[in-house]
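Re: that chain you flagged

S.,

Sorry for the slow reply, it's been a week of failed gels. I finally had a moment to sit down with the sequence you sent. For the record, here it is as I used it:
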Amino acid sequence: MCAASTSAVIAATAVFEFLDSTHREIQQQLRQLHQLVDAIESGGLNQATREKARRVLTYFNGEARQHHLDEEKHIFPSLRTSPNPEVVQAAEHLTQDHGWLEENWLQIAPSLEAAANGNLWFDTQELRHALDVFEALYLDHIVLEEAIAYPEAKKRLAAYDTAGMGREMARRRTLLRPEVLARA
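Prediction finished late last night. Pasting the structure tokens below so you have them in one place:
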């Protein structure tokens, strides 16, 4: 393998390692969300549960949405040009999942926002049900990405500037955080 090919594979690997690490973080945030609902049901709201609600809310409003955008902008387009109909169908299915995940999140977020602000107007059983649906969809989504989409995209993107993809992904996140801009 020539040096340019080796460097393309390494760059592609770094992008996919980042995407995989985001999947692990999403799963951790889902566990945090379950723990939060358990804590609210058993003890109501206190400073710790309010802060946990704020952190989970911030994560899914920010990083999780950016992750979906990363995939829709950099990963799925290459899959849609595949000659393999299973790969094309996977890309379409995953894009549709992002819409369903967003819809589910919009059902969950107001309750978390209320909890973060010290309000318990929401029904924890309804929140738990919405969370179960959200988690099941997310976990199935991650399995499909890691089993079909990412391996195929790695092959298809190995010849491209994935370092540029990584820079774009990082720049977009930096622009979302005003505190980072204020220090610059």
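What I noticed first: Residues 76 and 91 are 5 Å apart (CA to CA).

Talk soon,
D.
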